[in-house]
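> run fold Aminopeptidase P family protein
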Amino acid sequence: MLMQTHEARLDALRTELEKRGLDGFVVPISDEHMSEYVGSYAQRLQWLTGFGGSAGSAVVLKDKAAMFTDGRYTVQVREQVDGKLYDYEDVPKTSPAKWIAANAAKGARIGYDAWLHGVEWAEEAEKLFAKKGIELVAVDGNPIDAVWADRPEPSGAVAVPHEDRFAGRSSADKRAEIADWLKEEGYDATVITALDSVAWVLNMRGADIANTPVALSYILAHADGTAELFIAPEKVTPELTKHLGNAVSVRERSDFEPALASLKGKTVAVDPKHAVAGICRALEQGGAKVVHDADPAVLPKAIKTPEEQQGHRDAQARDGAAMVKYLRWIEENAPSGEVDELGAAAKLREFRGLSADLKDTSFDTISAAAGHAALPHYKVDEDSNIPIPPSSIYLCDSGGQYLDGTTDITRTVWVGPGEPTAEMIDRNTRVLKGHIELALATFPDETTGGALDALARIHLWKAGVDYGHGTGHGVGSYLSVHEGPQRISKPGGAFPGTETPLREGMILSNEPGYYKAGEYGIRIENLVLCVDAQIEGSEGKYLAFETLTLVPLDRRLVEKSMLTPTEIQWWNDYHAEVRETLAPQLDGADLEWLERECLPL
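> ok
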């Protein structure tokens, strides 16, 4: 029997927990790889509670339950999760572990799925609970799976080779580099669990998670240069087997845990930021020595090869032409009041799909009108969808997945008739000034992203305003749209990566914003590439940013008198490059629109 209400699902989970002798259970948004975005089979939190955000968790006790989300989802969680069933708790003011320690009785047995929680989370929760006389129990099989009758199966899509002409390096070369690292550190093997790392190491892509071209799989890489790939057999084609070669043995995904348990006496490196607790438990129980060390693929993956850099430029040019068609369409159609957020997102997908090279979107499009634009991570659905009001700001954050690159762009535009308010123009101009400040930055090699963040905020700070998200994240090469380890954000904030040194070849977003709750939101986002600054007479290596995203900005939201001559020059140079790159792909009314929007300021 299928349970239609979230109350019935919560009741069923409590009954299952009681059968297992558990007094509570922790439900994260996660999969066995600690992915940011997870497949439908792993959407346990959404099934249980109705929450559709990408970050959050729930705790279910016998007599109460709570939802935990950060400031991005304050509004969304209240719209989607029944307050009669769950208390709303704000992270980082509290956490699931702290809440359990305060609300569970002494002697309580709290269950968790060790294949969905990180190593560090489990260790810290165990210590905290021990002080309160609470036991943390790793469950044998997820209790939600036991009551979720129509749970989808994991994707059965095949994995495919990613050609060296796009990657710029062979898989054999990458595996040899990892083997050298293992020998240098005195390790016998390392477990590579992050799906984008697996994809990068093997030059392999898949279709198991929406918007991210990865295949559900693990790698066990050995110091002799060989590797074992654990993957469902139906995903493996003769073409993939040939691509992987003799040094990579392909094993069933179900063999992974037994393989870990067979490494007795071996020293195995595990990245605690990417590995679930179940992996460390299996290794330790099998007699392996577990050492915590960084995933050896993370940093080299972030430093793009020349081929990947050029692929990004080519993908951006294609994506830019689609964006021009879209922005012209918005300008002409949205003022009628008959275009809604979902319809606008679908139209953008249609324009991107005119390119045969498009494989997918790189995330769910943030198509946000009026007050919805003030929610930086707004996700439109049938329930939240509204018409784009005439005489308002519309924000669209979107991207495409192409074989040669992953795009991510935000444009904020004025929807007529009439003119934007003086405040809207002021705020947008300050966001633009911060965007330009960062785009024009030169800085010593290995400067941290945290050291650059204030450049994007300083003009907003002068007006006594700010924004609550990071300024920049790494971006993959036909991989994850959010890629570590680098990040541009306030130092010491909630986001990891701000202390990672920036290096030549890294790609990041440049996306300052401003959000007026309930009224409007502004964000300007381009992707940038770290390049050699080539400063004559420089004492040491310096870096600068090459802007990769090429799409016009809305001049109706800019106050020219607030811009310096340098900023006006950046605007004009940028739009000249936009025109030069995109014009050959456009004709008719689209080309006329581009020409008009790229005129000097």
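The chain has three domains: 6-147, 160-301, 303-597.
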